[in-house]
Amino acid sequence: MRIGVDVLERARFERIAAKDRWVRALFTERELEPVGAYGPERTIEYLAGRFSAKEAVAKVLGVGLIGRVKWRDVEVLRSSPGGEPRVLLHRFARVRAEELGFGAVEVSISHQPTVVVAFAVGERACACGGHAAP
User: Fold this and answer.
1) Is residue 34 part of a domain?
2) How far apart are CA 34 and CA 8, in angstroms?
3) In 10 A of CB 21, how many CB atoms?
4) Residue 51 lies in a domain
5) Full domain range(s) for residue 47
6) Is the pLDDT of residue 76 over 80?
7) Is the full-model pTM beyond 0.85?
8) Does residue 131 lie within any of the structural domains?
9) What is the CATH number of the domain that holds 106?
10) Is residue 3 over pLDDT 60?
11) CA angle, corner 100, sides to 6 and 31, nearest 5?
12) Cis peptide before 85 (omega within 30 of 0)
């Protein structure tokens, strides 16, 4: 098992999110779909959470998001019906997770007025059917 955590000041992220080209570079179309139904405050909260989650996942993978793993290689979507975040890995992020033997990477996101925190866990699968190895 590997863990990663990221703490992000909302004010720092607001400067990033102010530029549409940055938002399009950081997030997939599927990640951006729910934003149309949100007001400005909720949009920032939602996107900051995904940004922080991607950082936490990169730490689990032991890579940065500027090298071989790109921002859009880590996709953080809402699961149904609970809405909790679900991580999908693409391209090199997926390859790296497979190298580490991860069956899944899970993430939790928490929001406060000025900060967002994301915690990620990569769990190694065992040969016995996908449960975590001891």
Assistant:
1) yes
2) 21
3) 7
4) yes
5) 2-124
6) yes
7) yes
8) no
9) 3.90.470.20
10) yes
11) 45
12) no
